[in-house]
Design brief:
CATH architecture of one domain: Roll
Oligomer: single chain
CATH superfamily of one domain: Head domain of nucleotide exchange factor GrpE
Largest sheet: 3 strands, antiparallel
Structural class: alpha+beta
Helix content: 55-70%
Number of strands: 8
Distance between the termini: 128 Å
């Protein structure tokens, strides 16, 4: 008989698996507590104890639970906000670090390209002297021209272009004027009359201005 009563009691409180595993959020629990407090239910008052061991009724216990839930929700929001701020700061740090790396690489590449330019100048000077250039063997000239073209290819690959031709408008931002040639032709005024040294640009930035003489009336 006693065993039957125990089994019956156990059966009265047993819940289905679906009910015990149902996912309840803090918002769901808060809404349930709000409904329980707002509805006029005929609930038998029970006595419980709080954390300090004091006796409290069901309505008081409900208020305490609601307060604890409110505190928990606020703490959760604070943790979430803090995490979002930390994540945003981390993303910003990574972005600034990447920008710094790119700027460093750009600066290092520019310095390296500038070192190439005097080498190109030496080749240009050597090949511009036709008598001396053609006096050496064809094999040697072909080898030097191949090296010269390799240097030029490196500059071109990095968006470096040369400028400075006779007839160009003498832009002070791009040309370094080292001499003046007189002219009576208005169309030639302030244009390049001769080029002593080519200029170089990387994209829209001048790496080295061209050294030129300029026509002036």
């Amino acid at each position: 008989m006693k065993d039957d009563i125990q089994k019956q009691n156990i059966g009265d409180i047993q819940l289905d698996d679906e009910e015990t595993t149902a996912p309840y959020t803090a918002s769901d629990i808060k809404d349930s507590l709000d409904d329980a407090e707002s509805e006029d239910l005929d609930v038998e008052e029970f006595v419980d104890t709080d954390e300090e061991g004091k006796e409290v009724g069901s309505s008081e216990k409900l208020k305490q639970l609601r307060e604890k839930l409110k505190i928990a929700i606020n703490e959760k929001q604070e943790y979430l906000t803090g995490w979002q701020k930390e994540k945003a700061e981390f993303v910003n740090i990574r972005r600034r670090d990447e920008e710094s790396k790119q700027e460093f690489l750009k600066f290092a590449t520019q310095n390296l390209l500038e070192e190439f330019i005097p080498v190109i100048d030496s080749f240009d000077m050597a090949m511009s002297n036709k008598v001396a250039w053609e006096a050496v063997s064809l094999e040697w000239r072909n080898g030097m021209e191949k090296i010269y073209n390799q240097f030029k290819a490196v500059l071109s690959k990095n968006d470096v272009t040369e400028f400075g031709e006779i007839g160009d408008k003498a832009d002070p931002a791009k040309f370094h004027m080292i001499g003046v040639d007189s002219t009576t032709d208005a169309k030639l005024d302030e244009t390049v009359s001769s080029v002593l040294q080519k200029g170089y640009m990387v994209k829209d930035k001048v790496l080295r201005p061209a050294m030129v003489r300029v026509f002036q009336k």
